[in-house]
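Action item from last meeting closed. Structure (495 res):
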């Protein structure tokens, strides 16, 4: 019997097609345990769904206690009766099976909807409300195709009820933008074809090293296979799509390190779609660093670092699910070479707007009290969040205040401002990887921002001081890691 295709398969295929392969054909013994953070995501998603369902003020068919064929039969009965709303139904057509959170009657047919504990759109900014999330869209499209298959579709405009209590319509037939005329339905059909090929064994997927790996239950197995294969995704900033464009010609990092890349270069282009000559040369440089046993980091371009008597190494912790910034941490150092340094933290004691504002205000007051100073942070995350916090809590600081503290003359983004200045013999350029390379170790055995979110959730519920300290220790270590990285960069520059 052919394996039926689910919405979860499509969701996973957007992020990692190899996960679909392993879920279908991998050995259960090779799976890692589900992380505490992933379990928290599931628990929160279920809790939010139940909260929404309890708040419905319209009659609906509740099929959540049923499963399998019984659930499907009950769903079809509800549709045939013309029920206005069906919760937790099951529908099938062809090789597709779906369990949408909601089926809502509109006119003579039904549209599908999902309850999501995240925002319904992504990429929102001052000029745009954002765009539909592709991994949500493919799920909704699968439900829509099934409704079309059984003859009860009210159109290709399913919806998401998101964490902001907004209903977000997904127009599956509309172009995704001026630069991307392809519709979400077109994208869905491509992903569906890919998953069908994986299910049938016609498409062979490869593991890849990527940021999402740390949350996957196949992470240990995939990392082992990637390293054994010398896969190109071991090269920093060379992702799955780039690897797939190159792998038939350049299978491994050893092959790339030894290659004469001029044979693949034609003027301002290469034979690899989407990869220019400069990128190809950069990837070869990094491949050579990774394959040379005695490779050392080196300076490519001069590093411009502003002088400062007071240095603040700044890191925040946020919970995207609650949309809150719950911790601002600083390691303060005087006179660069002075080993004396102090950690200062400003923690929201509860995930509320009032506590978020208090912690933000205290962190801002702390920065003002340390001026003149240079602030060091890693990537644009802190700046982006502080801009958002200013908009939420305008009484704390003005827009000009926020822009001033992140001005290049008094702050340094140790990722973007140093990008292209130094090459490192590492598989990525995260602060954890680079600081570890330079000899730093975190006190926690499994340090990550995701873990910190789960700790904060447990601390808010329990008030356990040990968990609170674990959160602060992790944040302090992130700040210290930036100090280690800065000193390492300075040493390279001096050398």
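Sequence:
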């Amino acid at each position: 019997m052919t394996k039926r295709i689910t919405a979860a398969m499509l969701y996973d295929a957007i992020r990692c097609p190899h996960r679909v392969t392993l879920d279908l054909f991998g050995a259960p013994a090779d799976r890692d345990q589900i992380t505490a953070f992933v379990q928290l995501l599931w628990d929160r998603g279920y809790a939010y769904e139940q909260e929404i369902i309890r708040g419905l003020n319209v009659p609906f068919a509740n099929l959540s206690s049923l499963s399998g064929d019984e659930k499907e039969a009950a769903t079809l009965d509800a549709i045939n009766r013309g029920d206005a709303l069906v919760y937790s139904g099951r529908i099938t057509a062809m090789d597709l099976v779906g369990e949408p959170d909601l089926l809502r009657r509109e006119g003579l047919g039904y549209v599908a909807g999902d309850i999501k504990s995240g925002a319904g759109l992504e990429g929102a900014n001052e000029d745009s409300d954002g765009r539909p999330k592709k991994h949500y869209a493919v799920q909704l499209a699968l439900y829509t195709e099934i409704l079309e298959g059984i003859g009860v579709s009210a159109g290709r405009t399913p919806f998401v009820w998101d964490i902001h209590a907004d209903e977000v319509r997904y127009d599956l037939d509309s172009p995704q933008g001026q630069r991307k005329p392809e519709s979400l339905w077109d994208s869905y059909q491509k992903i569906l074809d890919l998953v069908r090929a994986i299910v049938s064994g016609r498409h062979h997927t490869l593991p890849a090293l990527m940021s999402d790996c740390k949350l996957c239950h196949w992470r240990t197995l995939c990392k082992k296979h990637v390293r054994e294969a010398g896969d190109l995704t071991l090269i920093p900033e060379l992702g799955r799509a780039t690897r797939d464009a190159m792998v038939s010609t350049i299978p491994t990092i050893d092959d790339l390190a030894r290659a004469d890349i001029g044979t693949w270069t034609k003027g301002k282009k290469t034979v690899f779609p989407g990869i220019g000559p400069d990128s190809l040369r950069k990837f070869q440089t990094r491949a050579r660093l990774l394959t040379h046993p005695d490779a050392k980091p080196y300076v490519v371009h001069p590093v411009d670092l502003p002088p400062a008597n007071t240095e603040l190494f700044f890191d925040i912790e946020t919970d995207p699910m609650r949309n809150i910034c719950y911790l601002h941490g600083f390691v303060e150092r005087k006179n660069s070479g002075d080993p004396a340094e102090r950690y200062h933290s400003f923690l929201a004691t509860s995930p509320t707007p009032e506590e978020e504002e208090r912690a933000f205000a205290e962190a801002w007051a702390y920065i003002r009290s340390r001026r003149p100073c240079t602030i060091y942070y890693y990537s644009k995350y802190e700046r982006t969040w502080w801009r958002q916090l200013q908009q939420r809590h305008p009484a704390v600081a003005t827009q000009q205040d926020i822009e001033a503290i992140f001005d290049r003359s008094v702050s340094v983004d140790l990722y973007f401002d140093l990008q292209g200045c130094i090459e490192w013999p590492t598989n990525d350029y995260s602060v954890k990887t680079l600081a570890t390379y330079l000899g730093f170790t975190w006190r926690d055995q499994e340090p990550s921002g995701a873990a910190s979110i789960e700790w904060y959730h447990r601390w808010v519920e329990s008030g356990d001081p040990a968990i609170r300290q674990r959160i602060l220790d992790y944040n302090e270590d992130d700040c210290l890691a930036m100090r280690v990285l800065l000193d390492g960069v300075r040493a390279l520059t001096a050398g």
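Note appended to the action item: Residues 118 and 321 are 6 Å apart (CA to CA).
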